[in-house]
Amino acid sequence: MKRRAFFGVSAGTAAALTGTNGCNVKKIEHESQKISVGNPGGLSLEELRDRYRHDLFDDFLPFLDTYVIDHEYGGFMCNTDRSGKNITTNKSSWYEGRGIWVYSFLYNKVEPDPKYLEVARMSVEFILKHRPSGDKLWPGSYSKEGKMLTETGDIYGGLFIANGLSEYSKAVKDDSYWDIAKDILIRHLRLYDSPDYNYQVTYYMTDPPPLKGPRVLGHWMVLLRLVTQMLEFKSDPEIEIIADRCVDAILNYHFNPAYGLMNEAINHDMSRAGGGYEQFSYTGHAIETLWMVLFEAERRKDRALYDRAAEMLKRHVEISWDDVYGGAFRCLDHVDNNTWKVDKVLWLQEEVLIGTLFMIEHTGDPWAKEWFDKMYAYVTDKFPLKQYGYPLWILGADRKVTFVEEYGRVGNFHHPRHLMLNLLSVERMIKRKGMVSDLFI
Q1: CA count, 13 A, side-chain hemisphere, 118
Q2: Which phi and psi (to 5°) does residue 149 adopt?
Q3: What is the C-alpha separation between 262 and 286, in angstroms, rounded?
Q4: Helices then strands (H, E): number in the chain?
Q5: pLDDT value of residue 128
Q6: Residue 271 in this model has a pLDDT that exceeds 60
Q7: CA-to-CA distance for 213 and 209, rounded, in angstroms?
């Protein structure tokens, strides 16, 4: 699909997006704690909090507890349809790691109910039985009982497991799980740093040519979120270095100043790749990655980093917006030809909501208020399945978000992550009586 032509990147915008070490970065004007966060989504903060709590505690968690969580062997059976029928009872390393994180974070930050910690514990025990030796990648999938079904996984599976174990270690106050997470991280990073690293960006890019030892935005994204959360638990100079690497790669190498967007894949030596990769921007990953950079700026209390990432986030959100039917597209297949794939996925819309609400909370950014309102109205209109007689929300659909009766997967990560992160944000704003934070004051 070809969309409207891009507006050129102005000199001011280019300077803001390509500046280094905070130089020439456009500053958000409102920095006083006297600035109100307003009414995100057109709701009072209390109303928004109650909606988030309902979607998490009354809709999402009960469905997973009844149909997806394996209370016998541990883990998550995500190959489940809208009615709760398990199409298969298979489990994957991706969804085990993600589920461990969700239920550990839920226990740590949202609701310290022992039943949530028990869900995480059983998944931890299930997945650690299959911990690979050496630098091998985690197996991809398992039967309900734990028999390995797919021998070869990918780097994401292990990194999701590490993220889950790191969060779980906080819940049980046991450093050994954090240490396992670090071991997985270092081993997977060693694989990623090998010139022979074998990974192909097959998602959505049309007929990608082989790229030896690629550097992948999605990889840096998962690495950054992992190390940022590990550093919340305890300091570690080696992990700080990895965090710096991730931020540098994202902002200074994957960002393409020729048109002000991120390239998903570049060469191993961090140079721009050819063969169509220089024209491919997986805008969904870019938006998701950039809110993670904002969170890292919060951890560091680095306003220059925050401002630079915020400007990049704004551009990617605006470029990805569907002016006809609303919502954001996740894949720009060819920049110069302005060719997009036009399906709509829930996770991307929710990444926009995470990033914009974070900006509202900490700076009261008027742009973020406008775009949160626009996206929140769109998402709550199009994606909840309640209007069709089912619980949960639509995970993916066509451009118009057309409802289909049959759907074979339940998401156990992006949706609850959005609900939890934004619920916590709203609760903090309520405690501050609706005023922006003092993070950058």
Answers
A1: 9
A2: -105, -35
A3: 6
A4: 14, 11
A5: 97
A6: yes
A7: 13
